[in-house]
């Protein structure tokens, strides 16, 4: 029973939200005459063709032209306020999507310097922010666009409601149709070439994402048109899915080997590459098992006792060994697709390990098991002769996960299989879908489901096992014999240089999920030596070499948190003019103890093995979330928050998981990540955040308080441009003294999302003291944490303050905190956002911080 349970925050009052001010980057645009000169040829050709009777037909026959029912790409430098609204005033224009990008300064577009002493000069060291508007016009819409351009060209008024087009033409960089280079990303070509080499003559399964149309008839027309194109090439449609809530229309297609070669060599002329119905052609999305297990004698299973109650956590993974002594009586297996029949028992590695880590934690630590059962929905299988577990190759992945969640929470005509579940573990990533800036359909799905069903997804950041070149070394002996700190610097420099090739894997970019990275840590006490393997890092708070690096959408913090993923070693791959290493398999060197199938085929049900990576770290994060909730609900254990409204469980647990995390203060990261100019500290903080997220949580700090530390928990609902104010009492022992103290605030929420909108996030929340924190409580914002602009980009706002100033309390010794909601991509006027908030006040353990706050709250401890 905790001696000092978490405290409830006093109920908030509604107040007005603070105003905001956004100052866009100063971009120098070409003069109007230059813009007219640059863009006139494209508009002149459009005018000439549209003037002909068969103009629309001629345009459609030319895949390089703007044409009716073909997506037009407006690329602008900077942004244009209200452009989408103005575009909506043109009948026949349908906005399909918008997203942000950047480009290198050129002769036409540059950034103006704001730095002292350089005002007005041109900057060439920074990319220029840009925005793409993707819109589909009909013939009439193209005609009106041409008319607006001609009016602007003649310096004539554009008419009421069309003022944003003035800025559009002023800032327009390119206007072109969506073409083959847009539809086929580089990773798709690489995938096709790899598959053609691996399986010559075999069709290549490819995922097609169509432009989503709100009109059902137009969707059906697009579907029929694409099916005809695929059949004409000799291909086949394997599966089709439409999920309107995330604006998704996809097909899984088998493309013949000959057509693949045509696409690789002549994609500008191949119908699949120029079909107007297609947004993207991508490698098939599949979640696969990245886990390597090594038999271990580091722990013994112990006795298993049945779990009781209803599940609150779900595992979407491979089929586990249900009868394993650590799992028997603790799982609720729901297998409507009968994947058990298609998965060999001796190969049920991933699901068995993840279930074990959630229920028991690292067996090297002999922790107590969770008391509740774990709901398991298999989504991966593995047959004899296959190398690893994987999701169903005959279905679109996004549909597989969608059906799994609908079954858990229930839908029209289907009763919920596990309605009490609000924590969902997804310890898998898509190695074919590294995050490159555009949110994947699966991540969009998780974001939508989080907001719709109020569930917290815990998602692995992904493991990147590609070789890594270590600068400054040419032989393994040099590397192995190096001073550990010198070796660590070289490894971090290598990771920093390759960071864009070692990004998180879909769906880790999910806005509403907590994405988990693998911390370079485990509890292995005796590591068996092995030739040509070395521990690359000395700082156990750093991520493993294989752990996918952030950032996320719009440079939001991803991964959010790091949990132990094994103290991963690296192995020699090659030497010569450079040293190349790869992440090692556990091989009794490192890892987390977890249940495993009997790899020897004797059928034993008590096997333990080493697991590692972001999958294992995510399982530990799900276990921690479960423990936080159990502590909150433990009325008999003294909890003061056991009567929380269930609709806030998920956001409160999300807030508390992040709340105890602290940023890695390793100065080496700043030295390596740069940039080094003092004025670019925000950019440097962003780069460091790729390796640290919000940090490594100390879960024990949110399970109970201590004498010198009090954590308070609250919650609420906010609509756009509204705010709540919480007023909490300060401890008397910190008034007018220079005792060091800390203030930590965290607010977490599930934002509605707007697929296709470049901002994507419907609402953002923040929390801050009312008044200056230094004057109210003697603290200032801690410098060693992600920059303030960085922590505003996701669905968690987490901030640290510290100081030792002696201040006289004001407002009768209370600290007022304001939580406010601002519209981002936009939410409906009647739509509100649930949030959870955690606040910690901390000083030395010799001070009665907890008792004084509890007394001032007039809360009596439970007997």
Notes on the structure:
The protein is an alpha+beta fold and 863 residues long. It has 4 domains: 7-20 and 702-857, Jelly Rolls (Sandwich); 31-178, no CATH class; 182-283, Alpha-Beta Plaits (2-Layer Sandwich); 309-633, Peptidase S8/S53 domain (Rossmann fold). Helix content is 27%, strand content 23%. It is built from 22 helices and 37 strands. The strands form 9 sheets. It has a 7-stranded parallel β-sheet with strand order 16-17-15-20-21-23-25. The chain has a 6-stranded mixed β-sheet with strand order 1-30-37-32-35-34. The protein is globular and about 85 Å long. The model has no long low-confidence stretch (mean pLDDT 91).
Q: Report the major sheet.
A: 7 strands, parallel
Please tally the β strands and state the result.
Answer: 37
Main sheet: strand order: 16-17-15-20-21-23-25
Total number of helices: 22
Task: Please bin the fraction of helical residues.
Answer: 25-40%
- CATH fold topology of the largest domain: Rossmann fold
From the helix content, strand content and strand pairing, which structural class follows? alpha+beta
Unreliable spans: none
Query: Could you name the CATH class of the largest domain?
Result: Alpha Beta
Strand content: 15-25%
What is the domain tally? 4
Per CATH, the superfamily of the largest domain is: Peptidase S8/S53 domain
CATH architecture field of the largest domain: 3-Layer(aba) Sandwich
Span between termini: 10 Å
The gross shape turns out to be globular
What value does the average pLDDT take? Answer: 91
Radius of gyration: 28 Å
